[in-house]
Amino acid sequence: MSTPSADLPSSPTEEETSANSRNVGSKTLARGLRALEFVAGSGGGATVQELAAELQVHRTIAYRVLATLEDFKLVFKDPEGRYRAGAGLSALAHQVQRGLRETLEPYLRDLARELQATVALLVAEGDEAVAVAVVEPPYSSYHLAFRTGSRHPLDRGAAGHALRAAMEWSDGEPEIVTKARNEGYASTWGEVEPGAYGVAIPLRRGVGLPAACVNLITNRADVAERAIPVLLAKAEEINASLS
By three-state DSSP, how is residue 164 classified? Predict the structure, then answer.
């Protein structure tokens, strides 16, 4: 009776096949998310060749990724042949923000209660910081507040600096942004609201998530100072929940 040669490769197990499939799927998803992020972040749109260089893939693969994103209205091709963020991205961004808000609101409530100050979650949208969740302290007789949906430019305020620190380093960025990235927080006074102190903690950015930060606003210098270690510790918990 002959026996199988020891040199013949064995067939993959069901577990190995499933794992390989997941790895391929994860790689494809990550590539699509990176492509979407690249196109959305390019002010003048992006070409197939530019995306291929960014992803370090062949033009054919870059084109297929863009075609898939175009099918879902996440990007569109303008008359010059450049791809830009599509209308479907707004709906997707809303769902991402909603997921972030629901995940982080318990942490925001804890912070507002402990620090007796208004705490908010802000994300970057283009060149603006947008408040997607705002929690006011439950027992404070006097506090500063602002509305969900409030916007201000990214180049000012603790939240704006923290959001830029949550992004990749860029040549020529302001010193306050570099400092926020190195120290883990940004602190300002009167840059958005006259007489208001702001302390913001940039959050670790996951794949497919916008730059985000937790921001505290108060009219008291002592509250702002006391908030720094509390916010830094809570940011570690938040980052673990998002990873």
Answer: helix
Could you tell me the domains of the chain? 14-86 (1.10.10.10), 90-242 (3.30.450.40)
Closest CA to 39 of 75, 7, 72, 64: 75
The whole-model pTM stands at 0.64
What is the spatial distance between Cα 117 and Cα 196, in angstroms, rounded to a whole number?
12
Cβ neighbours, 10 Å, residue 42:
17
Cβ(84)–Cβ(35) below 8 Å: no
How many whole angstroms separate alpha carbon 12 and alpha carbon 30? 25
pLDDT in tens, 135-145: 999 876 666 76
SS3 per-residue string spanning 195-231: CCEEEEEECCCCCCCCCEEEEEEECCHHHHHHHHHHH
Cα separation of 220 and 197, whole Å?
A: 7
Question: b vs e for 90-110, b when ≥16 Cβ sit within 10 Å of the residue's Cβ?
Answer: eeebeebbeebeeebeebbbe
Going from the C-alpha of 92 to that of each of 33, 95, 98, the distances in angstroms are: 12, 5, 10
| Burial category of 81 from C-beta neighbours within 10 Å (exposed 0-12, middle 13-18, buried 19 and up) | exposed
Mean pLDDT across the chain, nearest whole number? 85
Q: ∠ CA(15), CA(242), CA(65), 5° rounding?
A: 65
